[in-house]
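DEPOSITED CHAIN:
***
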Amino acid sequence: MNWKQLMEKARELLHQAKALMDENQGDDWTQERENQIEALLNESDEVKARAERARRVETGMAYFEDPAAPPPPLGGEVPPGTMGQGMTGNEEIDAVTINAEYKAVFGVYLVGGMGSLNVKQVEVLQRGYVEADRKVLTGNTGVAGGFLVAADFRAVMVEEQAARAFLRNLVTVQPCSGEFLEMPTVEAPSSNAGIYANGIVFTWVNSPMDEDTGDTEPEFGLMRIPMHDATAKTRLSINMVNDAAVNIEASLPRWYGEAWGLQEDYVILQGTGRGMPLGILEDTDITGTHYVETAASGTVGADDLIDLMYDLEAQYAVSAGWVTSRANLKSVRKLKDGEGNYLWQPGLQAGEPDTLLGAPVAQTPWMPAISAGNYSFIYGDLKRYALGERQRITMTVLREKYIEQLKIGYMAHIRVGGQAMIARAFRVLKIKA
């Protein structure tokens, strides 16, 4: 199936689930029927995820395809004739030139991902780092080691699917050139907070007016967001890197990128502000003032979500959305409003987000569970969170440092900082104890 057919299948599964839910109103709801509905919803989510992956592959192939010599996908199956870094054994290998070119492309990929590479750069990344004494096994030729190559061997890395990281695309990313990201602020007096954006207020006067009548001044300040360092290091056996049928070095940037994306999501939500960015759920200006507590202990009801949504000022609600976990969403997706309409609505088009009370829902594993004392839902304008970026993720290959251990080291490093710029642009739902 192509991605459009998969989306149609996901839509049909949702319609089946909705039909079952509509048939079972009131007290005749059974556990068996609930399990059937849950199975349909889960299958719909899985098919929708497959459709999105298929759509991304189709889009990516259209961008990178070169009819004359299509490059193999990163981390995918190695086409015939490309085993051994794409060398046939008949070419004169200038390892120094090849490796210099590879390192340059490697850095571009780390910063911008596959979308930043042209077709030639993708081929260079696929070829990988060449060792001068690398040996190539040629199939069907005994003296070249061909009989040591299994006939049905597939050079594909088997790995689990990483959780999805997404918050970078929703917050404000601001480049920074120093130890702090400094941002001037202007605030309204506390008596006008939530309505006026600054200290300027008009005064109605009678003519003639006094000289000082209508005086008004903005309140200026300075926000300083400190930068913090994060690193990750991996050591691999030289023999494994050299002998592996898949290009491990070409996969490392993706693995580091996935790991950092998830860690970045974590600190945006739960960073302590001590040696790392300050997260939304750890910001006492938000959790201490701008929260709504559930009516019942240890659970979330429809009224709680409605109360949270409408506690946010209208000027921030225009661009607001929800952040919660998949497990939390599961517990509220059957809730209805006073008119009998489901609060949760699935996105039926590829790339379209699910909605809760009409606002988009972002799912992340880092949101706390629905449990007494936890903040399990965020509703707000995530663009009001600033992620300062002093240095994007870079990767260093340590070929000499661990040579006595016959290993190669790889180290990734990044410098970022972050915190909410405007606390009142966020609301959090606190689960009553």
Notes: The CA atoms of residues 98 and 408 lie 19 Å apart. The longest strand covers residues 385-398. The first helix runs from residue 3 to 23.
